[in-house]
Fold this protein.
Amino acid sequence: MKIVDYRVTPIAFGDPPLRAAFGLHAPYALRTIVEVVSDDGLTGVSETHGGSAVVADLLAVRDLVVGRDPFQLAALEHTLYGSVPQTGNVATPWEGKLHSFPRTFGAIEVACLDLIGKALGRPVCDLLGGRVRDRVPFSAYLFYKHAGAGGEWGFECDPAAHGWAAARQAEALSAEALVEQAQAMVTAFGFKSLKLKGGVLPPEEEVRTVRLLRAAFGPDVPLRIDPNAAWSLETSVRWANELEGLLEYYEDPVAGKENMAALAQRISIPLATNMCCVSFADLPATIRLGSVQIILGDHHFWGGLRASVELARICRTWGLGLSMHSNSHLGISLSAMTHLAAAIPNLTYACDTHYPWQSEEIIVGGKLEFVDGALPVPTGPGLGVELDRTALQHLHEQHLRSGLDYRDDEREMQKIEPGWRYRVPQW
Ligand code: GKR
Ligand code: MG
């Protein structure tokens, strides 16, 4: 089989005004859709991060992708290594860096695996060693937020909405409002664990939110809080004492491997990260220092699905737990995340997903459905989803109209709070 065409399409979809330590989500989230077309007329697809730098990296390797055999992924990876121009490197204010190469190769790899699966009539998880579970549990992802559902509605609300649709657009800037949001999300999707995006309100209010969530949902629903490194070491220690016994894990309260390691020495709650360890290059120091007990993998920046299976084995070897990170995404990413989680025995935590926050879709048949908080592993060939070309066109035009070319939560936050700055630590 030979790849005869390669398409890269930037898209934008409505995203609610969610808050995180970085600021505020813009009315549209950006993603990129990659397609590889084979000489026998099949198309493999994948979804990755958005923004012009990501697209530029993907387009720069077009000539290295077209003409290749999609089965020869090791050779493709070897060829691309060093050829991706690195325009999409994201140097973050914390120490982890998201690199162009694993993201670019990962997006192409997933599209090739979808293509191979379609050619063989087998689901992608079978290409990763087969499934160890038929359903993948996900966690409710709770956000403090402003009123509105994003997209063309911006900050406006639809008064006719009810259930999760109403909760999705409701303002939630207090502990009580977060509990209402959690109840609506759990009722709609059946999630059995809860993750609170922290680093937004003063720590005492966020810890009060955790306590109220525990009171509302009871001790059998695991809770996590993720302040995205907005707390200092002392703040993280102080509030860990209050959170003792309440958390399944404490995700990135403080910035950097050294601080996380120092925190680990002083508290007994397991620490997790998708910030201080975001690549294979970060692993030796993370393990040597003992920075975390759990790594949140993400195939979008760890180099694809096969690399993520390797990460899982490394975690098992070193006695680390494995969970899964997410960003705002649509169904192609969700399907890839589900196939991956199905194939990893030691992925024992419910995975993160932003999916309930999005109302638009790019796959035929509309949104994938959670059953009791889990997604059944798709059984069709490849990723088990088909690109909806009308939706692709619409979301691409929306991208052009949005005027956005990268995610900038700080700029968005300044529209409602002039002078606001993203600071690490904030508290
Ligand atoms: O969507 O604002 C957000 C999240 O804060 C996201 O950017 C993070 O990458 O979900 C992520 C996390 O777990 O840190
Ligand atoms: Mg996180």
In short: The chain has a mean pLDDT of 95. The pocket of D-glucarate (ligand 1) is lined by residues 18, 20, 197, 226, 228, 274, 325-328, 352, 354 (CB under 6 Å). The longest strand covers residues 3-14. Residues 114 and 383 are 5 Å apart (CA to CA).
